[in-house]
Write a structure and sequence with these properties.
The protein has 2 domains: 2-134, Response regulator (Rossmann fold, 3-Layer(aba) Sandwich), CATH 3.40.50; 165-338, Hypothetical protein af1432 (Orthogonal Bundle), CATH 1.10.3210.10. The protein is 57% helix and 7% strand. The chain has 15 helices and 5 strands. Helix 6 runs antiparallel to helix 7 (190-199) and helix 11 (246-257) crosses helix 12.
């Protein structure tokens, strides 16, 4: 273990280094200049500091106080050597961060005993810190493993929904990618962006409960069929309701709210403006845009330029204007997903 001794008197410094250096597994570094000791502390840590109280330039009290401010020395045992038994001096040293005291002239046996005890304390601190770091690493790896499993389960569920709805897996995958890009452009944090990318593909999970004849009908739906189709929103919300995790709660919000409209004319609740959850507002833009660009049994695929213009046209009516602005800013990254030119210019 590394012990640093600071004593301006070279003879006393040599004696202290010799006494402490006889202890097993101890490497001693002596400094006669406290400024050099402080510079050393900024470069590397130590396991014990022994400092004289009275020194020129920087006193032992000031040295201990300065070293305590360094993260690497926050818990290092520090011993002050002083010939002054004044209670006020000792209280000031304790306030500065001193752990123990040795009275001049230092008794070799006492000094080695105190150093041995303090190094044992330091060893226990280091072992505890190592164990804490090991546990933190294990927890981080376990968390990453859970996240990977979480992502895999959600991905496979989304893929199943895609195949159920006329093989639209590519659509839900692009919706997830576009939603992530919009969230990033809106300045949302990493957790929000990750969660949105994971659960946006579940926006149409309620279509599991829609009959095949309606889901895959090649023509327009009649009013009764349209009402049944719109019921997928409520089915999806029920499937995802009551979740404890932020991820499932966001998925529920998206499933329930991605057909709401900014102006309040959407369904199922007729929510308007910021009453619609942000994740649902973002997903609505991503979903409609990619749906317009995709071929369906009941419609042709729109050219990306026309779909882009439609999204921009509906800002403030169908869509949150901030989400549309984020869509426009993100276009150079969205365009390759639908095979479009990144140089498109349509006023939002």
């Amino acid at each position: 273990m590394r012990v640093v001794i600071v004593e301006d008197n070279s003879i006393n410094l040599d004696l202290l280094c010799t006494m402490v250096g006889k202890l097993p597994h101890v490497a001693v570094q002596g400094f006669s200049d406290p400024a050099l000791a402080l510079a050393d502390a900024r470069q590397q840590g130590c396991d014990l500091l022994i400092a004289d109280y009275v020194m020129p330039g920087i006193s032992g009290l000031e040295l201990i106080e300065a070293m305590r401010q360094l993260p690497s020395h926050a818990h290092v045992p520090m011993v002050m050597i002083t010939a002054d038994n004044d209670r006020a001096v000792r209280l000031a040293a304790i306030a500065a961060g001193a752990t123990d005291f040795v009275t001049k002239p230092a008794d070799p046996l006492e000094l080695r005993s105190r150093v041995t005890n303090l190094l044992a304390l330091r060893g226990a601190q280091n072992a505890l810190a190592d164990r804490a770091a090991c546990l933190a690493a294990e927890i981080a790896e376990a968390t990453r493993d859970l996240q990977r499993r979480e992502e895999e389960i959600i991905c496979r569920l989304a893929r199943a929904i895609g195949f159920r709805d006329g093989d639209t897996w590519d659509h839900v995958d692009r919706v997830a990618q576009i939603a992530r890009l919009l969230a990033e452009a809106l300045g949302e944090d990493e957790t929000f962006v990750r969660n949105l990318g994971l659960v946006a593909p579940l926006h149409d999970v309620g279509k599991i409960g829609v009959p095949d004849a309606i889901l895959n009908k090649p023509g327009r739906l009649d009013p009764d069929e349209l009402a049944i189709m719109r019921g997928h929103v409520g089915i999806g919300a029920k499937i995802l309701a009551g979740g404890d995790s932020d991820l499932v709660q966001m998925a529920e919000a998206i499933a329930a709210g991605h057909h709401e409209r900014w102006d309040g004319t959407g369904y199922p609740q007729g929510l308007a403006g910021s009453d619609i959850p942000l994740a649902a507002r973002i997903t609505a833009v991503a979903d409609v845009f990619d749906a317009l660009c995709s071929e369906r049994p009941y419609k042709r695929a729109w050219p990306a330029e026309e779909a882009y213009a439609e999204i921009c046209r509906c800002a403030g009516s169908h869509f949150d204007p901030a989400c549309v602005a984020a869509f426009a800013r993100s276009w150079p990254r969205i365009a390759p997903l639908v095979g479009a030119s990144p140089d498109i210019t349509v006023a939002a």
